[in-house]
Specification:
The chain is about 65% helix and about 0% strand. It is globular. Helix 6 packs across helix 7. The protein is an all-alpha fold.
């Protein structure tokens, strides 16, 4: 069930009214309703994978209790939990990748094999809900949370439908207390949620899905197009993937607000970053912070020798890339970001922009800030070519075709508007990603509601693409 589908709108309206008007007086029943609806939502993709979700939930719930109760074997139970999650993820998501690459390696040595490969669709959201379970057991082991004995509460934490298939990746210490706490209806929270949903739909349906037409055409025909067109294609994809994933995240945050929940922020206007380190503090925040807390810091973080710091940095970026998909393109994408990040790390500039917003007290950025943001966007866009390409060879070939010249496909210039619109509106909202469309002037505010809502309705007639991050 896609967020940008008519079925989801009916589903959301039904659940909302049941939640607040039929079961608002009983927290336990509300949570049972959320769990049942979350499983119904997930079952729309493929009902058979519901058993995988339930099994994963049961195992991590059990390991959480075992880690908490045991002193001598708590580390063993932690590793068993990690092994279980990685085994499930590895089998469904990476089995064909490893077997296929092993087959290619053996073929180079003259050994021809015919291995058994999986012929099933990747379970949607598997990378997200396995990371939910792992973080839960990790946090119990580290003493950050105590396990809940209520299985329904834990299952809602893992499978809450707004974040089930594409995040954000929540922490038990943040979301679980909200599941266990009585929630009261708030008109203001509902309005704020609807604003986020509207802006999310606009980013996805109007911006991302429209640009995807141009991007698909350019990447499919890159050998026949001019270099400037290929640069434009890479820029379009940068905005497409932002509109697609940030649009999804805004919808998820908005839907959660409708039910009284506050999810973790996942985007804070990453294309206004002044270096790659700041970019990763603003892009897919829940994933980058997950790898920081559960991989980078356990490896020693930055409190080890310089060589090990560089090693740890490469590990988290390469693993982060591989997390996105079983393809060398994602590993290359992660490696590029590691190479861009390490000079900042070695020069102690990786924490240079940690809290302040660019041009915080001015309308426009300075020339220096403009250059920094442009350079960072260009570097991120370069890396996105590998993310978008079907394989590394195509990515390299695409880059080689980038040269100079006039656009050979003038109609694609129209896509520039879809780049400018979200950037201009995001610049106005850059101080707080959760107060979207909250303009003081009522006329302007309602004018935006009408304009964006109309655009979403018109474009939804022919723009109904799935979300990019659903495949991860």
């Amino acid at each position: 069930m896609l967020f940008n589908s008519f079925e989801f709108v009916l589903f959301l309206i039904t659940v909302y009214f049941l939640y607040w008007f039929a079961f608002s007086k009983n927290l336990a029943v509300q949570n049972i309703l959320l769990l049942a609806c979350s499983y119904l939502f997930y079952g729309f993709w493929d009902w058979r994978f519901l058993f995988l979700l339930l099994l994963s939930t049961l195992i991590d719930y059990g390991f959480g209790l075992l880690v908490y109760r045991s002193e001598r074997r708590k580390k063993l139970y932690l590793w068993l939990s990690i092994f279980n999650n990685l085994a499930v993820l590895g089998f469904f998501k990476y089995y064909n990748f490893f077997v296929g690459n092993a087959q290619d390696a053996l073929a180079l040595m003259g050994l021809h094999t015919d291995p058994w490969l999986l012929n099933i669709v990747l379970p949607v959201g598997i990378s997200f809900y396995t990371f939910h379970g792992m973080s839960y057991v990790f946090d119990i082991y580290n003493g950050k949370v105590t396990p809940t004995r209520n299985f329904v509460d834990y299952a809602v934490f893992v499978s809450f439908f707004p974040l089930l298939v594409a995040g954000p990746i929540e922490r038990a210490s943040h979301l679980l207390p909200q599941v266990q706490k009585k929630r009261t209806f708030s008109f203001e929270q509902t309005v704020a949620g609807m604003r986020l949903i509207l802006w999310g739909y606009f980013l996805k349906v109007v911006i991302a899905d429209t640009l995807s037409v141009f991007v698909n055409d350019i990447f499919a025909n890159y050998k026949t197009l001019s270099g400037s067109t290929l640069v434009l294609g890479a820029v379009y994809f940068s905005i497409q993937i932002y509109g697609d994933f940030c649009g999804y995240t805004n919808i998820a945050l908005g839907v959660a607000k409708l039910f009284g929940f506050e999810l973790l922020s996942n985007f804070r206007y990453p294309y206004f970053s002044r270096n790659i380190a700041e970019f990763w503090k603003r892009w897919h925040i829940s994933l980058s912070s997950w790898f920081r807390d559960y991989l980078y810091i356990p490896l020693g973080g930055s409190r080890v020798s310089t060589a090990k710091v560089v090693r740890n940095t490469f590990i988290i970026f390469l693993v982060s890339g591989f997390w996105h998909g079983a393809n060398w393109t994602f590993i290359a994408w992660g490696g590029i970001h590691a190479l861009l990040f390490i000079p900042l790390l070695l020069s102690n500039n990786n924490r240079k922009f940690t809290s302040e917003v660019v041009a915080d007290n001015t309308l426009l950025p300075s020339l220096r800030e403009t250059w920094q943001m442009t350079a960072t966007f260009a570097l991120a866009t370069f890396a996105w070519i590998f993310f978008r390409a079907p394989d590394v060879g195509v990515a390299v070939d695409y880059i080689q075709h980038i040269g100079h010249g006039l656009l050979q496909m003038p109609t694609k210039r129209l896509g520039i508007a879809y780049v400018i619109i979200p950037l201009v509106i995001d610049w106005r909202q850059r101080h707080d990603e959760r107060t979207v469309l909250n303009y003081r002037n009522r006329l302007v505010r309602w004018g935006m509601y009408v304009a964006l809502g109309t655009a979403v309705l018109v474009y939804s007639v022919y723009n109904q693409g799935t979300f990019i991050y659903f495949q991860f």
